[in-house]
Write a structure and sequence with these properties.
Shape: globular
Strand content: 5-15%
Order of helices and strands: HEHEHEEHEHEHHEH
Strand order of the largest sheet: 4-3-2-1-5-6-7
Structural class: alpha/beta
CATH class: Alpha Beta
Number of helices: 8
Oligomer: single chain
Helix content: 25-40%
Low-confidence stretches: 3-32, 34-39, 43-55, 224-233
CATH architecture: 3-Layer(aba) Sandwich
Distance between the termini: 26 Å
Length: 233
């Protein structure tokens, strides 16, 4: 959900790792997993074995934000799609930035498993959301919408890393929202100063299954009331 990627800002150590190398297509979307390659609006279908939601489930379910670069590697794309499917099968609501890359992958996985995906867009046109988003919210806030994604979530999973992803991980960490890092930012990557602040950093996960186990430990199955600890300064 990182619009800074579109401007060519790439974090250290990730050069040359993207699928599309940041080359825009005719309509402004990159090749790879983007709106160009998707059907108009895929019909939501529940995957075999997935749990049917209760009438009030969207309000009582866990809301998990999945953040990551809009230009991602093939591995990150596959991981995000499997993560979206796993979250949907658990009945979790998926939040994302509604764009390409990791956002499109997690949305596709969740939607094809019959889940609900909320895309919180930086611009003012909800039609800009990728086709796998169930509910598109056009904020018109630009990168400030990253704060909405984090504050609306009960937990954040970072798949991969970019400058925009780092901002979301940092905001979640500082405001008490649990963060699971799946091939993403960690205090070890951020440096000694971040670890010395006394604020717990992201919990590392190696696989999608491990990520789901960590979410089960970090969050209750049902969230009766949304809320987080105040910012630690």
């Amino acid at each position: 959900m990182d619009d800074d990627d579109a401007r060519g800002s790439v974090p250290p150590g990730t050069e040359g790792a993207s699928i599309a190398d940041g080359v825009p297509s005719a309509n402004g979307h990159r090749p790879g997993l983007s709106v160009e390659d998707a059907p108009e609006r895929p019909a939501r279908r529940r995957a075999r074995g997935a749990r049917a939601p209760a009438d009030d489930e969207p309000r009582t379910a866990r809301y998990v934000a999945v953040v990551g670069p809009s230009v991602c590697t093939r591995v990150q794309q596959d991981v995000a799609e499997r993560l979206g499917r796993a979250l949907a099968e658990r009945g979790d609501v998926v939040l994302c930035g509604g764009g390409d890359g990791v956002m499109a992958a997690v949305a596709r996985g969740a939607t094809e498993a019959g889940g609900v995906v909320v895309g919180i867009l930086p611009g003012d046109d909800r039609r800009a959301a990728n086709p796998w988003v169930t509910i598109a919210l056009a904020t018109g806030l630009g990168e400030l919408r990253n704060g909405l994604i984090v504050r609306a979530a009960d937990a954040v999973v970072a798949v991969g890393g970019s400058w925009g992803t780092l901002s979301e991980v940092a905001m979640a960490t500082r405001t008490g929202v649990p963060v699971v890092s799946l091939d993403g930012w960690t205090p070890a990557v951020a440096g000694r100063a971040a670890a010395q602040e006394g604020v717990p950093g992201p919990v590392e996960a190696g696989t999608v299954d491990e990520t789901m186990d960590l979410l089960d430990r970090l969050l209750p199955t049902v969230v009766p009331q949304h809320g987080h600890e105040p910012d630690r300064r």
